[in-house]
Amino acid sequence: MTAGTAAAEAVGTAVVSCRDVVVEFGAARVLHGVSAEVRQGRVVGLVGESGSGKSTLAKAIVGMNRIASGELWIDGEEVSRASRSQRHRLYRKVQYVPQDPYSSLNPRRTIGQTLAEAIDPVGGTPRRHTERIAEALEAMWLDPSDARKYPHEFSGGQRQRIAIARALLVDPSLIVADEITSALDVSVQAEVIRVLQELKQDGERSMLFITHNLAVAQEVCDDVVVMLHGEIVENGPTERVFRSPESEYTQKLLDSVPGGPGFSL
Ligand SMILES: Nc1ncnc2c1ncn2[C@@H]1O[C@H](COP(=O)(O)OP(=O)(O)OP(=O)(O)O)[C@@H](O)[C@H]1O
Ligand SMILES: [Mg+2]
């Protein structure tokens, strides 16, 4: 057995796993050796104050940030050891949904065109994929006829649901959702959270869910990872972490929530 195979087995059913991941921007080291994983079917919350490195980690996982050292495993394969074409295939398995779907949905393309492209980046047209597009829209509480509309015809919450539909159509192993509810009004946040909870029920979708909002994390996540200054200070099942945090910093975060622990949306 090669070392590579042994390591792959140790990763087990993790869909994505980071080992000692370091990210630097010029001389500034922002992630100081982060190790974390998301297992099949789990929704993992990534919380921590602004600037703690949550987006930096998310972007390292989806290939938008260069990893200076450490390992990134996607579906049991270590990315840096993969060939260029393999790497391209691996990164398709991790789909990033950004905070602002305005910047990620092309304003000149209909929703149908955008979704067809997610299914088939080379020759996707809405007509060839009508059924899958309709299904994806319906799963996000949208109407199949919405495929003919443009992004500006939708509300923020609807656009965010379209961005999730697009990510799902790639059939990824992991969805990385970076503050996808934080730019929305509270009532619209609840709408996006409800679709996420519905999505969770099939038990197969794995998600890394980044949020400032501990109430949202409590609502949506099976596990939470708490970051501070580019390091993980706590990691465990949401219920345990919120009930009896091991780290002082997590306790501080919980104390800072209006209404204290046990808060709800
Ligand atoms: N492209 C970049 N170039 C230089 N520095 C960066 C870059 N991206 C992030 N940083 C720095 O890395 C640190 C972590 O930023 P990051 O965006 O990961 O934080 P965050 O936890 O996502 O914060 P927020 O909750 O505000 O989104 C910050 O100090 C930030 O200034
Ligand atoms: Mg961020």
Q: Could you please describe the fold and organization of this structure?
A:
Helices cover 37% and strands 24% of the residues. It is built from 11 helices and 10 strands. It has helices at residues 3-11, 54-61, 84-92, 101-104, 111-119, 130-139, 156-169, 186-200, 214-220, 238-243, 248-255; strands spanning 14-25, 28-39, 43-47, 69-74, 77-78, 94-97, 174-178, 206-210, 223-228, 231-237. Strand 1 (14-25) and strand 2 form a beta hairpin. It is globular and about 55 Å long. The N and C termini lie far apart (50 Å). The structure holds adenosine-5'-triphosphate and magnesium ion. Magnesium ion (MG) is lined by residues 54-55, 179.
- The low-confidence runs, each spanning 5 or more residues with pLDDT under 50, are 6-12
Order of helices and strands: HEEEHEEHEHHHHEHEHEEHH
> What is the global morphology?
globular
Could you tell me the mean pLDDT? 89
From the N-terminal CA to the C-terminal CA, the straight-line distance is 50 Å
Which percent range describes the beta-strand content? 15-25%
Quaternary form: single chain
Count of extended strands: 10
Report the sheet with the most strands, covering strand number, pairing sense and barrel closure: 6 strands, mixed
Helix-strand makeup class? alpha/beta
**Largest beta sheet: strand ordering:** 6-7-8-3-9-10
